[in-house]
Amino acid sequence: MSNTAALDWLEEAWRQAGAKTLRNGARIGSNFPHASQGGVYVCEEPHWWTAGFWPGMLWLFYRENGEETLRRLAEACEERLDDVLREYTKLDHDLGFMWTLTSVASYKITGNAESRRRALQAANYLAGRFNLKGRFIRAWNPWSAGQDNAGIAIIDCAMNVPLLFWATAESGDPRYRHIAEAHLDTVLERFVRSDGSVYHIVRFDPLTGDFVEGIGGQGYAPESAWSRGTAWALYGLTLGYHHAGKPAYLDAAKRVAHFFLANLPEDRVPHWDFRLPPEVTKYRDSSAGACAASGLLLLAEKVGRTEAELYRGAAIRMLESLYRNYGAWDDPNEEGLILHGTSHYPEGKNVDVPLIYGDYFFVEGLSRLRGNDTIFWQ
């Protein structure tokens, strides 16, 4: 089946996702949903790392349909994040997730000068987390008194550094790009294994920058293969190549993509970890599939024709499976768009539920397939 023939479902998926998002907006408003529980999205505080995904999804639909309700909600979410920027103490590596999908999105679509200022401020805070000795962006702040996270870096940050590339392009100051590339170079050296699997967490000595250990984090074990972390690496390295043009980023992105695709189950939607012992339940993580699919569509634009067909075809099959087999389109008692996401299995948090970032990346993937040339990470 050709890619063109495979897209007969696309417009219906876009329509249903957009209609449900508009309905959800009447209840969610300018709040920050994370995971659906009992069919209702539980909203987190504005400083939570997922705060950008709901407004980011609103901007994707607004760009296509011009629905003013969506724009107003997205702008209200962005304004609510001002308190988080001012407070500063709760900011960590997820500045990119939060302000790329709010302020950068707003600036790209509307030209709002205040959105530009916010995004540049966020980029400065993200750059300030760079550890020079270890050449990595520090992840979390201490969660409790006495905890030391100063040497912790995580693969998720590969998706945060596009904010730094944007800041260099927008300001003309190369320092942001230098930091982004240094961090991604460390991802190549310390996170991506030779087979294309990926560590979630790496601990460095924060004083010397020396590698200490790889940690399982949200995956099953240190040497397992957390599927969403694999998707972060696939997409983040592809974006790194898009912005920096380094062949090493493209080569690594392809290696990660091949590992991801080789380990998919029959329905093309990944389990939450690719290396699980038989006694552990193999819940799906639809959010990992949605993120990887959008990344594969970008990767297809960066390679030759034969490889492009492989990556684009795989992405289409993943998105179509999410639509047909995981969509909650006909369930009025479920706010989530895409079912069966797994947030944090080791801690037993939000397992087998819709996740707002899964919904976002599903919509972004649809938007890419429809020819959208305003993808906020780029």
Low confidence ranges: none
Helical element count? 13
The total beta strand count reads: 9
The succession of helices and strands, N to C, reads HEEHHHHHEEEHHEEHHHHEEH
Q: Tell me, what is the CATH class?
A: Mainly Alpha
Brief rundown of the structure:
With 378 residues, the protein is mostly helical.
Which keywords apply here?
378 residues; mainly alpha; two-stranded antiparallel ribbon
Describe this structure in words.
The chain has 378 residues and is mainly α. It has a single domain (5-369), classed as Glycosyltransferase (Alpha/alpha barrel), CATH 1.50.10.10. Helices cover 51% and strands 10% of the residues. It contains 13 helices and nine strands. The strands form four sheets. The protein has a three-stranded antiparallel beta sheet, with no helix packed on it. A hairpin with a 2-residue loop joins strand 1 (32-37) and strand 2 (40-44). It is globular.
What layout of secondary structure does this protein have?
Layout: H1 10-28, E1 32-37, E2 40-44, H2 53-65, H3 68-80, H4 82-87, H5 95-110, H6 113-127, E3 130-131, E4 136-137, E5 152-154, H7 162-171, H8 175-191, E6 201-204, E7 211-215, H9 227-244, H10 247-262, H11 286-300, H12 305-326, E8 341-344, E9 349-353, H13 356-369
Antiparallel strand pairs: 1-2, 3-4, 5-6, 6-7, 8-9
Helix pairs in contact: 1-13, 2-3, 2-5, 2-13, 3-5, 5-6, 5-7, 6-7, 7-8, 8-9, 9-10, 9-11, 11-12, 11-13, 12-13
